Amino acid sequence: MNDALDGVREHYRATGLTERLKAALATNSAEQQPLAPARLAALDQFHTRGLAATAELAKLAGITADNSVIDVGSGIGGPARFLAASHGCQVTGVDLSEPFVEAARYLTERTGQSDRVSFQTASALALPFDEGEFDVALLQHVAMNIADRPRLYAEIRRVLKMGGRFATYDVVSNGGEPHYPVPWARTSDTSFLLTADATREAIELAGFRTLVCQDDSEAAKAWIAQLRASGPPPSPNLGVVMGPDFAQLAANLGRNLMEGRVDILTAVFEAA
Ligand SMILES: C[S@@+](CC[C@H](N)C(=O)[O-])C[C@H]1O[C@@H](n2cnc3c(N)ncnc32)[C@H](O)[C@@H]1O
Fold this sequence. Notes:
Blueprint: H1 3-11, H2 17-26, H3 41-44, H4 50-61, E1 68-72, H5 78-87, E2 90-95, H6 98-110, E3 117-121, E4 134-140, H7 149-159, E5 160-173, H8 196-205, E6 208-215, H9 217-229, H10 238-242, H11 246-258, E7 262-271
Parallel strand pairs: 1-2, 1-4, 2-3, 4-5
Antiparallel strand pairs: 5-7, 6-7
Helix pairs in contact: 4-5, 7-8
């Protein structure tokens, strides 16, 4: 594996994550009781605007119950569980971080969704699937960790059927250098932001046609202002996953957005 991927893996190393999740959830509900996927939203939707953003992206991608969906960079599996619960589809998550995949499987057992939602440890740059296996691919807040965009988007195109949809939701550069640390990188060594235009161009070059392309920065700023006004986050939250400095990482994302250093891009493409 190359240095950049090792650095990204280190950022999401999450030592003892599943045990910490068990402890955090034990205070709220008995191990035997199935958890409602939406109850985990403060913890398992690891991107700006949380569950609302996943719900909107799924709607834009037109996901239906008979779709086979791949969630690339699936984190601890919140978006995958939400899609299966709300749209009735089959979802496969892939993530570079072994502890995240282990935690995703644990939480999916707890929500009783293991028959519809599964996870594998792998790199987005070498997806362990044959050509044309999926109807829809999701990529939420992952591309900013990946330098080799042509390969990333080519891999996603490869595993999609002709006419399949690719829905992406990411932090993009607006020209300025971000303040670090941020939720996806503690230093610039593992942060590889492109502008919205460069992102769209790289995706189209990989064999996609643009269906939707929108700047969601204002909605993200409103969400951050609301979080600031509403005091401490509900528990358990992403601090359990990323550690006690998560509040600082999230605050820097807010600062970068408010200062116009980064934007939020939502886009949906068709595999051509
Ligand atoms: C900010 S989290 C977002 C997780 C999830 N998409 C969500 O929205 O809840 C970024 C995720 O991307 C994963 N990731 C980063 N680079 C990757 C790569 N090359 N291949 C697979 N996963 C990667 C990380 O391990 C991490 O789980």
